[in-house]
Amino acid sequence: MKWLVLLLGIAANSSASVLIKMAMMPPRKFPSLSEPLSALYNWPFWLGLILYGLAFVLYAAALAFLPLNVAHPILTSGAVACVALLSFIIFREPFYWTTALGIALVMAGVVLITAKVK
């Protein structure tokens, strides 16, 4: 259960980031002096904001079951890796071999940080 909560937190966080990116891309508009109410119709922004809130609640729930030095690195690095992959798939942003290596190194670092070896 604790790992499911953490995985859902990663999914909510990375989905929120993707939606906020979508909210800032044309044809959607964010508030400006010329169109201050345009944000009301920007559904990716509001859904992203809600998902960031959900990610925070799931993170807090995970902290009830997991130590902070385990939950935080897994959540943040998992979100970073997911966003890198989703930005490539959805937005066709570049994905270099260094990106893949960076994700692998971050994951290796998280394994080392959370390992229970004395």
Could you characterize what this model shows?
There is one protein chain. This protein is mostly helical and 118 residues long. The protein has one domain. The chain contains 4 helices and no strands. α1 (2-23) packs antiparallel against α2 and α1 (2-23) crosses α3 (68-91). The model has no long low-confidence stretch (mean pLDDT 91). It comes from Erwinia aeris. This is Multidrug efflux SMR transporter.
Features:
about 120 residues, mainly alpha, flat
SSE string: HHHH
Structural class: mainly alpha
Number of helical runs?
4
Distance between the termini: 27 Å
Radius of gyration (CA) equals 17 Å
Number of strands: 0
Pfam families: TMEM234
Main location: membrane
Protein name: Multidrug efflux SMR transporter
Transmembrane segments: 40-66, 73-91, 97-115
What order do the helices and strands come in, and which of them pair?
Elements: H1 2-23, H2 43-65, H3 68-91, H4 97-114
Helix pairs in contact: 1-2, 1-3, 3-4
Transmembrane segments: 40-66, 73-91, 97-115
Protein name: Multidrug efflux SMR transporter
Main location: membrane
Summarize the structure.
This protein has 4 helices and no strands.
